[in-house]
Amino acid sequence: MRRILKYSFVAFAILSSTILFAQKKWSLEECINYALQNNIQLKRSELQTKSTEKSYQQGYFNIAPSVTGNFNHQYSNGTAFNRYTLRFENIENQSGNASINAELEVFKGLSNWNNIGMLRYEFLSQKENNEILKNNITLNVVAAYLQILYDNENLNYSEEQYTILQKQLEKAEKQSELGSISPADYLNIKAQAINQKAVLTAAQSKVKISYLDLAQLLELDTADSLKINTTSIQIDNKSTIQDFDKLYAEIISSRPELRKADYDIKSARKGLNMAYGSLFPQVTLGYSLGSYYDRSAYYSKISGGDTLIIKYPKYSYSQQLQDYITNTVYLSIQVPIFQRFTNATRISKAKIGLLDAKFAQEETQKKLLKEIQQAYADALASYDKFLAYQESVSSYGEVFEQAKQKFDLGMINSIDYEMAHNNLIKAQGDLLHSKYTYLLRIKILDFYRGVPISL
After folding, report:
1. Fewest CB atoms less than 10 Å from the CB: which of 27, 130, 176, 183?
2. Secondary structure E strands in 304-442
3. pLDDT digits (tens, 9 = 90+) for 267-303
């Protein structure tokens, strides 16, 4: 009974969480955070960052001495020189050796230190690459979110227009029966209502597609449970766009693209220093502790006036290893005299890499300047359009009200009435589009400045 109650509780909890998830309305901030946490491309980039961090840490470890242990055992059969009898013999023998070796690179043209610097800047560059990717994901989510808001408002507006036309159609039908309007006027109003039905259907489909686009950005399997806050956003008539020079100065001080380009140059410069370091001698200090054993080895021992020859197995492996211990300290100096132009080629390629990094930085600066100029111009243009369409809607609204009154009094036909209505619909649609275009442009500028995006 307890097990049944336990499983029932778990099932209820899962069902409840599923229902709550389906009922949840996502804010823009929640969508952005969810996308950043679940984006696969970003996860792979973060793994790459961890990999470069490990390489950077390994750069420090490369300065430490290297210690290796060696053990060798071999079997031989045939004619060989016996160093104990000092003659060639046909023998079957086993021998081996064991040693511990330690080496420390004292000097290598500062290659290790330059390598640490290069790896550090590569790590920092990869971190900035993550920030660039996060920015792109954020802007894509913002655009998709605003697209849903726009499509949802457009859907509401289409529904309102369809309701109005349905009422007008019912009224026109009665007027046609009474002979107040001509059959042609009635058919014209009916066609307009049918056309608005098609517009409404397209608007409904567009909302579904926009939700699907956002769900894909969030890495959701389906858009069925995805709902967002669709409260209409109001925009005042006061522009919030600041002076371009001030805006540009704020943006370039915080862009990860520029920091990444700077780190890439520093990394390339360290790589060039490493290439020059290959021209210097390499000084290595080493120490070796080793010993060996051999089954053919023996030693003589005088006992009671007789000379005894002590061989294996009485002369055991462990005893031999103790007898033949050797300590070696050495200093090695390698001077590169001719390396088949390898070092010269390495230096030339490093110079090319540094020059390319500088060009990449210049390209990034120019690209960013163009993007900011374009975003700034788009924001100004969209704001001007928004103000213009506000006036247009107001004017066409007055024209339509006058046309409606005249049509009800039979002073104009349905064609003139339809034209006035269509002009108003188009102006309202243009106003709605300019509103969300301006909102997107201004949010992009704010995001460039480092201002967190919120609605």
Report:
1. 183
2. 306-311, 326-334
3. 999 999 999 998 999 999 999 999 988 888 877 777 7
Distances 123 to 302, 341, 374 between C-alpha atoms, Å: 70, 31, 32
Q: What is the DSSP string of 154-179?
A: HHHHHHHHHHHHHHHHHHHHHHHHHT
CB 271 within 8 A of CB 350: yes
Pairing assessment for the beta strands 227-228 and 25-26 based on DSSP bridges: parallel
Query: Which tokens hold the place of 334?
Result: 């390698």
Q: Please, which residues bridge with residue 292 across strands? A: 97
Short-list 41, 43, 44, 35, CA closest to 220:
35
> Distance between CA 203 and CA 197 in Å, rounded?
10
Q: Which helix (H) or strand (E) holds 264?
A: helix 256-277
Q: How confident is the model at residue 17 (pLDDT cuts 50, 70, 90)?
A: very low
Of residues 129, 138, 132, the one with CA closest to residue 48 = 129
* Alpha-carbon span 397 to 423, nearest angstrom: 9
End-to-end distance of the chain based on CA atoms, in angstroms?
A: 51
What pLDDT, on the 0 to 100 scale, is given for residue 358? 96
**DSSP secondary structure letters along 61-75:** HTTSPEEEEEEEEEE
| CB atoms inside a 10 Å sphere around CB 351 | 14
Rounded to whole angstroms, the Cα distance separating 79 from 224 reads 84
Residue with tokens 């290796």: 68
Secondary structure of residue 440 in the 3-state scheme: helix
